[in-house]
Amino acid sequence: MKLPRANDFKYLGDRISADGESLSAVKSRIDAAWLKWRQCSGVLCDKKMPTKLKSRIYRTVVRPVALYGSQTWSVTKKVEQKMSVAEMKMARWSLGVTRLDRIPNTDIRKKLGIAPIVEKMRENRLR
Q: Which of 103, 20, 120 is nearest to 63 (CA)?
């Protein structure tokens, strides 16, 4: 009996790829973070909620889901870009602004009081 060969599979909550790339793991973590963000969107998208509370919820609930297993990823520019784009989309939604408003990412991060997710990935890597 011959078993089919898998290109990637889930192991201990992380995606393992046959080619050793971590792109599939990153995509699955971004999807999981969006799922968690949607669960909290009642608070995160409410204009009446204080920005400080939104920031705290993002930092304690959503970001850890996105960064789970990031210590084992081979971090490339593509991985950094995907994580950064996902984070900024969530941050913009939380503040109720769009790209058309032409507000720089640094200003959005400053309003929410969050550091770039790429820096957090590097911190996790050093531990």
A: 120
